[in-house]
Each structure stands twice: as C-alpha cells, then as structure tokens.
C-alpha cells in the first residue's frame, strides 16, 4: 500500500516532508488537510493524528506525526534515500538530532510566531498580537545568528559543515521560507544581515530543485497577493 | 577516555541524562556546571557547547548537546543499553521520536516557564512574570492532558503502551518532576486530575531506582527550603 502523506502546503513542516519524499523518489499519495477550512479537526483526520496537526503519515497500518520524526522514519525505512540526509554514522547523526532538537524552541518558535502575528493571523480569523510579534522577533533574530555563526561555521555549504544537505537543512530552510510572506522591509531587516543563511537557503533550493519551488508555489502565490494588498493600501489618495 | 557529562542537577534534562547513564551502567565522569554561578558562560564550557546550555557530553573528541540528542546517542553508542530505552524497531523508534519532538513546544515549554515564573526566577536574579506564568499554565495543563489521554492510552505502564520505559519516559518524567518545587496547592491543582500521569511517574521512579531519587535529591532539598520559607511567611504575626 502506497505511503499516505497528510499535509497542508501552507504549513512549513508539511512542505519539508513533501520535498523530502519527492527528492528521494518515494512513491506516495498526497492528501490535503486544509487548515483554513479546519479539516484537521475532522473525525477522519483525528483517527490519523489525535493531536490534529499536519503533517502526518500512514505507512501500511503505521501512523506517525511530528515532522522531524517523520523525516527520520522515512530516511530509515525507505532504502533509496541517500545517506547524507540522515547519516548512519552515529556522531554525524547525533549532531543532526542536536540541530533538530534546538529548532523547536528557537527558529520554529520565533519564525512561526512572528509570521503569524504580523501577517497570517487575520487569514485564520485570529487577532494580531503586537507583543507576541515583538518577543518572537527577538527569538527569530537570535536563532538566525546561531545558524549563521554556529551551525553554518566552517566551509561546508550546509549545516554542521555538510557538503550535502541533511533532513536538518531541509526542515530549517522550510521554516525560514515563510519569511517570504513578510513585508519586504521586515524581511530585509531580519534576513539581510545573515549572508551565510541566505547562501544556504539557495544551496538547499538548488539541491532539491525543481521540487523545492514547486512545493513552495502556494507560498509564492500568497506572497504576491499580500504584496498587491500592501501596494493598494499605500496608493496615493484621490482626495 | 571516560565519557564526560556536563550537568547542573537543578536542570531537568541534566537529570534525565545522569539517570540514564547510571541506570545503564555507563562509565562516566560528572562535571558540574553551576547555572546559579553562571559557569555555563565560561570560555571552557563555551568550547564544549557554544550555546552555553547543559547538559552536554564529550565522548573522546566528540562533543554533543541537547538532551534528546544525547539520550539517542548514548542509547545507540553504548552496547550495554537495553533495547527498550530506544528500540531498534523502526516504527517503535519513530513513535518515541514523535513524543520527544512534541515535548519541546508543549510539556517543556509549559512546565519550565511556569516553574520559572512562579518559583525559580528570584533565585536566578530574574523578575516573576505573572502573564508568562498564566500562559505557561495553560500549555502545561494541556500537555498533561495529552500525556494522560493520548500518550498513556492503553494498558502499558509507560508512554505509547510500553511495558518498559524508553528515553521518552525518562525525559518527560524528569520535566514534570520540577513541579515538586511548586506550592502544594498549585501542584495538586495541576497534577491532581491526571491520575495516569501520577502512576507513570511512580513507575518510572521504580524502574530507575535508586538513581532516580539520588539524582533528584538536590530538587527535594530545594523543595524543603521553599516549603520552610512559605510556612515562615504565613506564621501568625505577633502584632
């Protein structure tokens, strides 16, 4: 039975799992769970993931959620996946776990909370919270500095000095990609000083093309819509 | 060269790593990094963990931080560790990763932020933040409900229906143990309704005795001190 992958392409961990499957030639069926329509609350999806979050997978009778756990499982269970994504070498593997563990309370917390409270909340029927955005921006900028100065230290193109990408590169880059939705000034202020981070995003995009842009296409469309809305609100008044 | 484990026993992930090493007969040297004396900021420790957090380990020339990554590494690299801690079976292992990933933004975020902002902040020279405590309590109670109703569903004594503990049991129980520092009323209100969680804490304590209580002893001492302080402040006045 084909692997089932439950995703909303507007969710950054969903995009990471989708890109991973496509790049590695894993035969899978993509099943859409639209968060804006609250489809994650349906009884059908609840039987897949009682925590009602995407992504989730079903492999035969085995159900799994949490994107990092999914990436580790897919890299281990599907024999066609190249070693660099999740190395068999224990110390290299351990350092990838270290980055993935760090991600949750740092980059993910900062980026997701910031984008939610500056851009996305109204689309989900939620209020914008300025204080939450301010706190999240600090965590986000500190996280980008850690990536720039610690995880990307050395000559490798990827995290931890890697010459080829791992599941940690894919997960973290997909997280950062949501900053595309920000107003250009905000994005430049936050990402601008982090030159290595910018190069690393491009390296990861190139290593996973054409799937990277194909899966991010929905994000690019929302970005265009938001830009049009912003330029309409800043047009000179006829008064 | 003996494994070096850098810890502060007042840190719950430090305690999880220490208990794991002791229960599994891993030969190691415990090196104290006292957070209350800001020893994690020293140049020596920075060369071990540039993020300046405990726990961290050095195994030969290999340095590693983030407690979940450390537990996975130790369970994989030390041949004497029983399979139940981190099963070789891919689907059981994947579900343990799923719990560990969930932990970061849920139980850990709720418990650590709540205890910091109700009890520990003054000991670390920080102000108590009532709003942060209120938000953290919601996350904490929701996380305990998830453990009670989802992760502890079924007949097993441990998470995911396990008959013996895994690294996820150890990590999550150590996180919850910091609630010992709360005022009795707060602790009863938060933990009281979660009967399965209470049984599971006892099961994990029993499965790892005597090391569990020995490593938690520092926490029990602080608990006694805090209780004495509370009873002094509620003594009838002589006025």
Automatic annotation (TrEMBL), chains A, B:
Pfam families assigned to the protein according to its UniProt record, in alphabetical order: GST_C_2, GST_N
EC number: 2.5.1.18
Residue span(s) of domain GST C-terminal: 89-235
Classification of source organism: Eukaryota, Viridiplantae, Streptophyta, Embryophyta, Tracheophyta
Name of this chain's protein: glutathione transferase
GO terms for biological process, alphabetical: toxin catabolic process
Organism: Flemingia macrophylla
Ranges of residues in domain GST N-terminal: 1-82
GO molecular function, one term: glutathione transferase activity
Domain of life of the organism encoding this protein: Eukaryota
Alphabetically ordered keywords of this record: Detoxification, Transferase
Family: Belongs to the GST superfamily. Theta family.
Catalysed reactions listed for this entry: RX + glutathione = an S-substituted glutathione + a halide anion + H(+)
């Amino acid at each position: 039975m084909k692997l089932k992958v439950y995703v909303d392409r507007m969710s950054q961990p969903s995009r990471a799992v989708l890109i991973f499957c496509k790049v590695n030639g894993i035969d899978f069926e993509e099943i859409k769970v639209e968060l804006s329509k609250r489809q994650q609350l349906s009884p059908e999806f609840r039987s897949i993931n009682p925590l009602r979050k995407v992504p989730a997978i079903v492999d035969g009778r085995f159900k799994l959620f949490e994107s990092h756990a999914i990436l580790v499982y897919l890299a281990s269970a599907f024999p066609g996946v190249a070693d660099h994504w999740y190395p068999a070498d224990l110390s290299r593997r351990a350092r990838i776990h270290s980055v993935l563990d760090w991600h949750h309370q740092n980059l993910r917390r900062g980026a997701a909370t910031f984008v939610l409270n500056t851009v996305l909340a109204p689309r989900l029927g939620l209020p914008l919270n300025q204080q939450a955005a301010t706190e999240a921006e600090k965590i986000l900028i500190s996280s980008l500095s850690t990536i720039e100065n610690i995880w990307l230290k050395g000559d490798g193109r990827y995290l931890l000095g890697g010459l080829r990408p791992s599941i940690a590169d894919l997960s973290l880059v997909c997280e950062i990609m949501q900053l595309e939705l920000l107003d250009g000034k905000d994005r430049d202020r936050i990402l601008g000083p982090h030159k290595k981070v910018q190069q690393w995003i491009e390296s990861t995009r190139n290593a996973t093309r054409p799937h990277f842009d194909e899966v991010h296409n929905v994000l690019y469309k929302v970005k265009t819509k938001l830009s049009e809305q912003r330029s309409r609100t800043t047009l000179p008044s006829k008064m």
